[in-house]
Write a structure and sequence with these properties.
Shape: elongated
Number of strands: 6
Number of helices: 6
Strand order of the largest sheet: 1-3-6
Order of helices and strands: HEEHEEHHEHEH
Helix content: 25-40%
Structural class: alpha/beta
């Protein structure tokens, strides 16, 4: 997975981490962001050398299209119950309070993600928490995985040997 929505990811990772059976995460493709959070909950992580992994971080993508509305002769008027209600609605410029609120959500979610990664991957290199992805071949030295294997079958065979 290239990642995904944060909703449910933390809870699923907690369930995986609490399992009483040995768990293995394997990827020969993408294991980024939310998928990396889930993989970190497993007892063993194995990647192929060319897998794209990591991308540990969070973001909210927001669009301020108010200038386009203005060019089109439109102006959005909002009547709201609080200064953060309707943050990001189309046609309205972002306020500093809205930016601060959204950044606080990102920071809070990321702190939970980073804490989980550090607790479950104790040899994690600090630069992993900067949001970049790496290839599987680099991930071993960064503490993102325990081994490399070209396929799931070979990863399982190595664990059973």
């Amino acid at each position: 997975s290239p990642g995904g929505m944060v909703v449910g990811c933390e809870e699923t990772a907690d369930i995986l981490a609490a399992m009483r059976k040995n768990t293995l995460a394997y990827s020969d493709d993408d294991c980024c962001s939310c998928a990396m959070w889930l993989a970190a909950a497993c007892d063993q992580i194995v990647f192929s050398a060319s897998a794209i992994v990591g991308n540990v971080g969070c973001f909210i993508a927001a669009l301020d299209n108010s200038a386009a509305w203005t060019e089109g002769g439109m102006k959005r008027e909002l009547f709201r119950s609080g200064p953060l209600k309707a943050a990001g609605i189309s046609g309205k410029p972002w306020t500093d309070a809205e930016r601060k609120s959204y950044q606080a959500r990102v920071d809070s979610t990321f702190q939970g993600f980073a804490n989980f990664m550090q607790a479950h991957r104790p040899n994690l290199a600090p630069e992993v928490l900067e949001g970049a992805w790496v290839h599987g071949r680099e991930s071993l030295a960064l503490g993102l995985c325990d081994a490399l294997a070209p396929s799931l079958e070979s990863a399982i065979a190595a664990l059973l040997a």
